[in-house]
Every structure is written in C-alpha cells, then in structure tokens.
Amino acid sequence: MESVSRQYRVPLPALAAASLVLVTLALALVFFVAPNDADQGFSQRIFYFHVSIALTAYACFAGGAWKALVHLWKRDPLADLESYVAVHQGLIFGTLVLVTGSIWAKISWGHWWLWSEDQLVLFLVLFLFYAAYFMLRFSVDPDPHREELHPPDRVHAARSELRRLDPHHLLCRAGRAARARVHALPR
Amino acid sequence: MTYAADVGALARKDLLLELRARDTLPAMLLFVVATFVVFHFALPAHSSQLAASGLLWVAILFTALLGLGRAFVPEREQRVLDGLVLAPCDRSAIWLAKSIATLAFLAAAELVALPVFALFFHGLGGATVAGVVLADLGICAVGTFLGAMAVVTRARDLLLPLLFLPLAIPIVVGGVGASVAGSPGRYLGFLGLYDVLFAVLCWASFEYVVTE
User: Fold this and answer.
1) Which chain A residues have a beta carbon less than 8 Å from that of B86?
2) Which of A32, A49, B109, B161 has the fewest CB atoms within 10 Å, i.e. is most exposed?
3) Is the pLDDT of residue B109 over 60?
4) Distances (CA, A) of B28 to A81, A86, B18, B144
5) Which ranges of chain A have pLDDT less than 50?
6) Nearest to A51 by CA among A110, A115, A119, A114
C-alpha cells in the first residue's frame, strides 16, 4: 500500500485557501457585478451555480471512470482510491445539480420536474446508477474479504484444502494418531 | 476443452440443477401470473390499452429480476464459484453459460406469461413479441453480470435490483416504444444495439468481476 501514501506537490491548505478566495470572488461577481437577466430576471443567477456544479459533477464522474479503468489496467491501489473519491464528489455535486435545477425549473417552467426533458432524465439515470455504485462499494467488505477473494490466495487455500483431503495425507495423520494412542497406553 | 464446450457444460449444469430442484422457474411463472392479476385490479376500469402494454414490461422486468436473483445462489451456497474460477477455462465462459441458462428460464416463463397477458388484457402484436425477445437478451446479459457482482456483497439480494433497474431503463424505453409506437422498427433497432453493446461489454469485463 506504499503507493497510496504518494504525496501531491500542491499542499491541501493552499488548495483550500485558493478555493475560498475564488468562491468568494465568484459569489461577489454573481450577486453584485452581473446584471439581472433581461428575460428571466433574478432567478437566472442560479445558473452561475447550477451549470458550474453540473460541469463539476460530469468531470468527477468522467475522472472516476478513467481512474477505475486505470485501476483495472495497472492494479494501482491509488487509482482505486482516486476513482472512489471522484465518484463520491460527483454524487454530492449531482445531488446539488438536481436540487438547483429543480428550483430553477419551478420558477421558470412552473414544475419541479419535467419528464419530457431528455437531459433531466438522463442525468437522473446517471445519478441513480452512481448511487447504486456507492451502495455496491460499501457492501463489499474492505481489505480482509477482498484479499480473501484475491486469486493467488484462493489458489493457495484450495491447494491446502486438497492436501487436507488427500487420502495419503489422511492415512499418515490416522497412523500418527494411532501411534500416539499406542504410546499413551499403560504398559 | 474448447470455449464452446466449456460454455455448454456450464449451461447444462444450470439447466440440470433447475430440472431436478425446480427452484426458480415455477416461482417465476407464479410471480408473473400473480402480477398480471394484481395489475388487472391496479388499472382503473376502461383504462387504455397503452397502460396495459406498459405494465407488461414492468412485469417482465420484475420476473427477470426474480430469476437473476436466484441465478448465483447455488454458486454461493456450495462455493462453486471458487471452483469455477480455479478451473482452467476462460472466465467469460461462466458469464455466457449463466446468461444462456437465465435466458432459458426467462423465455420459458414468457412462453406462459405472454399468452396469459393476451388473455387477461388485449392481444399481442408481432412487434411486442419481437421486442420481448430482444429485451430478454439484454436483460440476461446485463443482469447476469450484475448478479455476479452483487453475490459477493453483504446485501446481495438488496443490491441486485438497485444496480439492475437504472441499467434496465433503456430496455423499458425500447420495449414500450416497440409495443405502442406506430413504426416499431426504430425501437427494435435500439434494443438490438443495446443488446450488442452491453453483451460485448459484459463479456469483456466479467473476468474482473469474479476476480475481486
């Protein structure tokens, strides 16, 4: 598991600080600089959140899929972890996409949800599927079980099982037991 | 042994098991007929035929789910899967054989279910039957793959529907479209495309499912 502890060069506090500055700047631009939309008025401003969150969710899902492929390909445990984290983030952003999208749809179309919009339905299916992936991920026991399912171990386990059932082996064991019993008899 | 012989032997094992134990098929048959009866009462009187066509697809999906949930039970209970993985055969053969066996059960259940549906509700068109055949292929390909995935988890019976239903949405879209649309060709083509795409995908990646 050495590769899991591989470090990135950009430290976490610096990333967090940069995010804080950029998000604050974006909020200030959204609420104080951008003018009201000519058509939709104030409600259009939710797009500054909704679209960027949606793009982030898509990027997370794509990144998660890519890292999962790398994991299958190269058996890199770090790739597995990265894939899981990306999907986890994608799911959080996906929930936010559905919530912000519904709020906008209620104001603009008068409905919380419209089945006739292909994009909405497609995103919901994608979201459901990743939610199921999440359940699957948590339903497979971590390391001990996974290692038990690892093929070389399984071959080894089967081999020792076979050896235990081998007639010659059984006879030897029975012989040893009998000898021990004979030795234990009072003379 | 060649690949085809491996697949044949494995599929024969599943069919023989079912023939002797009769665990799955009678349950599927009873379930699908009972579902139709429930649907008859769930649909308001004088509701359109289109609604009944939609319900046919729901019934097929849930019946298939019942069979798929049972598919890997013998492997789990008797630890057969360990032996199969150790056997010197291509692992995708396990998936192919299991898909064929599940397809046989589903087809057998539908041989009874479709006439019963025609009897209870309204007649069946050729397009619907063609749609059911194409959908069966997709259901069994994807469902067997997910069934193998779910069987190694703790919440196995719970997990299969959660994994399967989102992936089955295109099947329902294509199937219902083939049943109700004026020109079903486009929907049947869509179902065929789904079958080919997912069969190839599942066949190629099954190796990773039984390894981990």
Assistant:
1) 154-155, 158
2) A32
3) yes
4) 40, 39, 12, 16
5) 1-3, 144-154, 156-157, 161, 164
6) A119
- The pLDDT tens digits for B186-212 are 999 999 999 999 999 999 989 888 864
Which residue among B85, B153, B165 sits closest to A136, beta carbon to beta carbon? B153
Nearest neighbour of A139 by CB, restricted to B155, B165, B205: B155
In total, the C-beta contacts within 8 angstroms joining chain A to chain B are: 47
Nearest to B117 by CA among B185, B189, B67, B58: B58
Whose CA is closest to A131, among B190, B142, B165, B112? Answer: B165
Would the CB atoms of B166 and A128 count as touching at under 8 Å? yes
For residue B123, name the pLDDT band (cuts at 50, 70, 90).
confident
What would the pLDDT profile of B139-163 be if each residue is shown by its tens digit? 999 999 999 988 888 877 888 999 9
Contacts of residue A44, Cβ cutoff 8 Å, sequence gap at least 6 = A36, A37
Q: CA-to-CA distance for B143 and B147, rounded, in angstroms? A: 6
ipTM of the complex: 0.72
Contacts of B149 in chain A (CB under 8 A): 136
Nearest to B70 by CA among B35, B31, B37: B31
Asked whether the CA dihedral B202, B207, B208, B212 is positive or negative, the reply is positive
Contacts with A, B 92-121, CB within 8 Å: none
pLDDT at position A74 is 86
Residues linked to residue A41 through DSSP beta bridges, in sequence order: A37
Sorted by sequence, the CB contacts under 8 Å of residue A79 that are 6+ apart come out as A67, A68, A70, A71
Residue among A128, A140, A155 whose CB faces B153 most closely: A140
CA distance A62 to B17: 42
Q: Is the full-model pTM beyond 0.80?
A: no
Closest chain A residue by Cα to residue B212: A149
- Tell me if B68 sits within 8 A of B41, measured CB to CB: no
| CA distances to A27, A38, A86, B152 from A51, in Å | 14, 19, 18, 38
- Tell me if B166 and A146 make a contact (CB, 8 A cut-off): no
